[in-house]
Amino acid sequence: MSTLPAVAADVTSTALTVIAPDGRCLWSNVATRRLGVRPEELPLSRAEPDGPAVDVPWPLADGDTRWLRVRCHDVRHDGQPLRLYEVRDVSVERRERDWGRNYRWRLAHIEQLAKVGTWEWDVATGHVIWSDVLLQMFGFPPGTALDYASYRELLHPDDVALIGRTLETALGVGGPFAYTHRMYLSDRTTLRVFECYGEVFTDPSGAPVRVLGTAHDITEMRQVQDELIRLAERDPLTDLPNRRALLARLDDLIGAAGESPGALLLIDIDNFKDINDVHGHVVGDDVLRVLARLLVRHLPTGTVLGRLGGDEFAVVLPRTPAGDALAVAESLCDVAARTPVPLAGAGLRVTLSIGAAPVGPGVTRDTLLAHADLALYEAKDAGRNRARLYLPEQYRHAVQRVNVVTRVRDALDQHRMHLDAQPIVDLTTGAVVSHELLIRLHDGRQPPLPPADFLPTVERDDLIGDLDRWVVATATTALADPAVAAAGTCFDVNISARSMESPGFGDWVVGVLRAAGVEPGRLGVEVTETAAITNVAAVRNLAGALRDAGCRLSLDDFGAGFGSFSYLKHLPFSTVKIAGDFVRQADRGGADPVLIDAVVRAAHGLGMRTVAESVERAELVPALRRLGVDAGQGFHLGRPVPLEDLLDHLRDRRHTAAVPRPRDP
Ligand code: C2E
Ligand code: CA
Ligand code: CA
Question: Which of 52, 53, 265, 611 has the smallest set of CB atoms within 10 Å of its CB?
């Protein structure tokens, strides 16, 4: 075969070999010999005659495996059927290809695991290649041809500008960049959040050539993050912003004070401790929740209600001048007082005290809170269930408040507390049925303090318990006086909500009366309607102890609070005292006589007596009598006089003592 074709066969890099039907090699070229084995030992059998080339592994003696690409041709030579094999060593080629395939597979796998897709942007052509994983993240099948314009249409319109700016800057300066954006998926409905990192590659002249980037779907992570932020800023009980969030809003408010006025409201639930003590914490929590919902519904839009902790709430009111803030606060007091909190069985009336403070010049968060707190204190001091606006004079009041408690404590210790007695008169017979005892502070200090000015302050202090016991003890001592007992005189004393709820107070009263040998029916206890309705269970306990022993129990100032007839029905009072506001004009028509009539009917129907307060004019007596009111009390029927004077009068009655006269003011 030393012909031209044979020469050509020897220079090609493809091994050629001719095999006879019996397996013997008839001919091979130089490239075959370079493979280093006899042609008969080559793995040729897998290649079909005139079929496609097949890659065949070829294990070597040293343990390595090489790959041969074998093609087989049927040839005839001298009438004999022979096979010509082309054999090429493709080991290197295959290794490179496998590595590449493997690399791409691994990359895709990592992308899938990490939920990260990759993209590559050819700056010159504007062509973008998206990895299959990224396309799938966008909701497209792998291999979809997605051009930049179509991609841009899916971006959230609010984020397009941001992406544009970021890429523009990155192309200008080169290097890495990052942005987060929202994007609709291929369905054009599902919105997801992607976080992208990229890097701009430049040519030696610094011109951008390629941009490589990743995109990471962080929608769920964002949701978790948002939820964490929400949790960190929410009060779990009421789901309102918590203290932290509220203080942040307050900082915003102070920051914006230059542009528009703003105000802060501090809200405190009246007697919340008592609600908790009497009804339990579960009810207390319910009250907080219900109230939170109620207040939110009644606040102007743009305001933020939050819970500062305990029973304290606060409202941040942007763009609100001081007067409007006070009006908002008053409307909240109003709606709370009008809306009973539904509880098992009955509705619990909850009242609020609110302090409002405007953001003034140079005010800080702490001073604003302090101002609102002072105003809140004023609201409580003025009898609760009301709102007050911070006024600079309140600093003075705050100092005075400390003095009030000290003055009352000193007066108790130094016997400078006194009682006045005001007769309660039967409207039919004109007989005095009892005397209400009213506390007086006579300590000679300035300014003089009437009960309305010192009681609310003392009621916020444990001192109120001592005061109420002192009143009961003093009344009992007076009742035990033989002259007073002989006259059959009765007294009615006022007690505060705190004493009413103090367990055992009723038993203590009964014990004191028994120890003094006083018939219990001669002492009555008055609790105000406002105190009674927020503490129904406590009234019931107190009533149980007092009425079992034969003491009277009066519901004071009925109508001044909510005038709720349902409470009358549920609470075992012996007497209802109709608040002066309804009495003063009762002889002049209008709504007052109608209301009095209704109260009298309800009370009598429940076996209770009625007393009209503030009977200031003679004309009222026949009018009230016609309405069926049993008794009256007021300046016309008898002014309060010092108890001592009354006692002196009773002791000397058989002699010539004058009728006691009111104290000099
Ligand atoms: P209250 O229980 O409704 O007592 C009646 C108040 O009306 C008394 O005021 C009395 O002086 C006044 N008053 C009597 N008749 C008339 C009248 O015809 N016209 C007008 N305008 N007022 C009349 P006071 O003594 O200033 O007592 C105010 C409140 O302080 C009492 O209202 C009561 O809630 C409370 N308080 C008085 N003494 C005590 C006490 O010893 N302990 C407690 N916890 N509270 C007391
Ligand atoms: Ca009273
Ligand atoms: Ca009263």
Answer: 52
495 lines ligand 1 (CB under 6 A): yes
- CB atoms within 5 A of ion ligand 3 belong to 556-557, 613
Residues 6+ apart with CB under 8 A from 261: 319, 320, 321, 322, 358, 359
Residues 238/292, Cβ–Cβ less than 8 Å: yes
SS3 15: strand
Give the pLDDT band of residue 1 (cuts 50, 70, 90). Answer: very low
Cα(552)–Cα(576) distance, integer angstroms: 11
Rounded to whole angstroms, the Cα distance separating 85 from 9 reads: 12
Query: Which residues lie below 8 Å from residue 30, measured CB to CB, with a gap of 6+?
Result: 10, 11
Residue with CA at minimum distance from ligand 1 atom 23 = 614
CATH superfamily of 3-89: PAS domain (3.30.450.20)
Q: Which helix (H) or strand (E) holds 314?
A: strand 312-318
The residue with tokens 């009413």 is 500
Contact between 148 and 126 (Cβ < 8 Å): yes
Q: What is the CATH number of domain 115-223?
A: 3.30.450.20
Q: Which runs of consecutive H residues, i.e. helices, occur in 38-156?
A: 91-114, 132-137, 148-154
Q: From atom 19 of ligand 1, which residue's Cα is the shortest distance away?
A: 614
- Taking the domain 415-443+450-646, which CATH number applies? 3.20.20.450
pTM value > 0.70: no
Residue 400, Cα to own-chain centre: how many angstroms? 35
Task: Round to whole Å and give the CA distance between 639 and 633.
Answer: 9
The predicted-structure confidence for 443-457, as pLDDT tens digits, reads as follows 988 778 899 889 988
Domain ranges of the chain: 3-89, 115-223, 238-390, 415-443+450-646
The closest of 187, 188, 203, 306 to 252, measured between CA atoms, is: 306
Q: Is the CB of 422 under 6 A from ligand 1?
A: yes
**Tens digits of residue pLDDT in 368-410:** 998 999 899 889 988 899 999 998 766 666 666 667 888 999 9
242: left (phi over 0), alpha (psi -120 to 50) or beta: beta
Between CA 554 and CA 611 the distance in angstroms is 9
Helices and strands in the chain, H and E counts: 25, 26
Cα 558 to middle of ligand 3, angstroms: 8
Using a 10 angstrom Cβ sphere, with 0-12 exposed, 13-18 middle and 19 or more buried, the burial of residue 339 is middle
Task: State the distance from the centre of ligand 1 to the C-alpha of 490, rounded, in angstroms.
Answer: 17
E strands of 360-504, at which residues? 386-389, 417-426, 432-441, 491-494
Q: Which residues neighbour 313 within 8 Å (Cβ) at sequence distance 6 or greater?
A: 240, 266, 267, 268, 291, 292, 295, 305, 306, 307
556 lines ligand 1 (CB under 6 A): yes
Contacts with 104 (C-beta within 8 Å, 6 or more apart), sequence order: none
Cβ of 496 below 6 Å from ligand 1? yes
Nearest bound ligand to CA 581? 1
